[in-house]
Amino acid sequence: MKKFLLLISVLALASLASEASAQIKVGNEGQLTVALESNNNYYAKDKTLEEIGLINPDDRTRGNFGSNDYLKVDYRLGRFSAGVQLDGYLPSLYGYDAYEYQQRDSKLTAFVTKYVQWEDQNWGVRLGDIFDQFGNGLIFRSYEDRALAFNNSLAGARAYYNFNNFVNVKVLAGAPRLYDVRSKNLIWGADLSVSISDIIGWYDGMVSVEGSYVGRRQKGIADDFMLSLTGVDGDILNMVSGRANVEYKGISFRGEYAAKLNNDLYNPVLPAAKGNVVSIDLGYNYKRFSASATFRRQENMLTNIELRPLGIGGGNVMNYLPLLTRQHTYSLANLNPYRGSSVHTGGEIGGQIDLYYSIRNPKMRSKYWNFHANFSMFNTIDHEAFGMEMEGRNVWLDFNFDVERQWNKSLKTTFLYSFQRWDEEINHFDSPMAHYCRSHIFVGDVTYKFNKKHSIRVEAQYLASNDYEGDWVAGTIEYNFAPKFSFYVSDMWNCEKMQDAQYGNFFYNSLGDGDHYLLHYYQVGASFTHNSLRAQLSYGRNRAGYVCSGGVCRFQPAYTGVNLSVTLSF
Amino acid sequence: MKKFLFLMTALVMGFTASAQSLPDVKVENQEGKVVSIKEVVDGTPMIISFWSTTCKPCIMELNAIYSNLDEWLEEANFKVVAVSVDDARSVSRARSMVNNWEGYTCLFDKNQDLKRAMNVSLTPHTFVVDGNGNIVASHSGYTPGSEQKLFEEIKALQ
Fold this sequence. Notes:
The complex is a heterodimer. By secondary structure, chain A is mainly beta. Helices cover 8% and strands 55% of the residues of chain A. Chain A has a domain at 120-280 and 298-321. Helices cover 35% and strands 23% of the residues of chain B. Chains A and B meet through helix 1, strand 1, strand 2, strand 6 and strand 14 of A and helix 1, strand 1, helix 2, helix 3 and helix 4 of B.
């Protein structure tokens, strides 16, 4: 708790400092920017969650305080820039792979990333940590997502050259970051994009073709008896990708085909195999109507940074195969997010469609209707697991409809209906049997502005489901004093008796048949914003479940406690 | 822990902010072409708003600006630049959603290069930028009504 108070006082000082500093100008020669993000939890005792077995006090090996912190400092002078980022896990919050899989025992962990960069008119060079992606990232993506404590930046070099907007060539090589260590494996790649429309001088639309190659060297395969049994092809993995993009008068097509050319492994129960993926995005915009559709079929394309040891969490990934379902913002609609059959099997096929329609009067901008419908569906493809042949089957299906109405400058209402059906069995065991759970979710959300400063938002949700937790209701009341303060209280109530744990989460296994807990997951919080400083303090009980960001999910264990998160930049 | 906090405090207090300008970072425009963010600088002041399809307050803020746009443009000359930080997963959805915001310049920052360069930790994050590309104000978060502050800052640039 002392640490917590110390932290609060430091942040209060920091906010004063940012206030003062904004008034001092140092001229235009060089620019220094600083950004800080700090996310802190104090884990309190919750007897109810301990009784049920949702919290095991022995799992709290790092004590009752956790803090994920990021400090980034950049300097820019003309075309030159350089920067450093310090990630501190002091220690890490519970539920982040970053901590679970790191090799050392120390409670405090820090990792430094840095770069220097020259950005000229037609070319650029960067040395140090590199964030980049080729195409959709199907064969290579290095990026950071702090909500997942994910960062696989390549430490190495990158250079690109752009010839008259016709042709852009990029090459890079480096060693990826794996949690708080630098992998000994090397990744290298090249990317070429050619703008056909620019070359032929066609400016009504856009046509481009692109191609990429990525290689990975796995160190020490020859010495690894277990790896050699899996059928991995040697230490070099080669992957290629080809893409075509067309845009013309509101119609767009983006297609990508990528392949893994060598036998590679990502799941210990599956034999090493080559892989391939097809991804197609279609878009159409016409006046107030727009539609988009995404299709993807992929087989064995998840690619790890390190083959050994396998299964070391969501941070051990060098490409990007996100879930292509709608990511909800309402808590009950997000209770059981699709987690992707590709994690369990050799592949999946599926897609989603989004339709948007808006009724607006251009002269009355404060009155409009927005309609949105979304459908997505994913199946596994025929595959082998645990030595058994398994037929592909549907593992996820959802339909969502929401309508937003801005009645006038003061009142806005939103209604959402979501139907979700998923195969609970494959989420755990990849069993040949299916066990479908179905949820119907209803959400109403009203925002009312009393005047330019005061507003209230009220949210009510209901979920009817046949999964092991049964039905839920949830509500939120939020009161805002613009632009600085916001307060909220919310509750998610599992209003129906839990089913037996057979199809439930592994973490519920201590729950006996017929046990009866109607749990409240309550939250109360406040946020303060001043320019680029934002601080949020909350207290509450949090449900165990998957937290997803950018189509990648991590498991968050249940906890009750205080959270303080602060971001600041200047 | 203490050292880290000390370091953070020292950094926060030790460095001073200058008039920052937009970095030279490439993003995609609505036609899918790669352009530099500097190309939006054309002498007109602007509001740059970072948003994503899964960020409700971001969309609320962009809608609130949209609702007021006609009235505000009568009093001040400015433009709105909406930068989506959606990645390959949801960028096609973002391209559909921007259809509702006519008059906005919409850009797509698929690998969050611009977000990183402009030190945006959380969305929504808005910047008020003068006609020469200098950042004059920066705001994190959105509460209904806080768009008024953006407008006041835009008016001060006229």
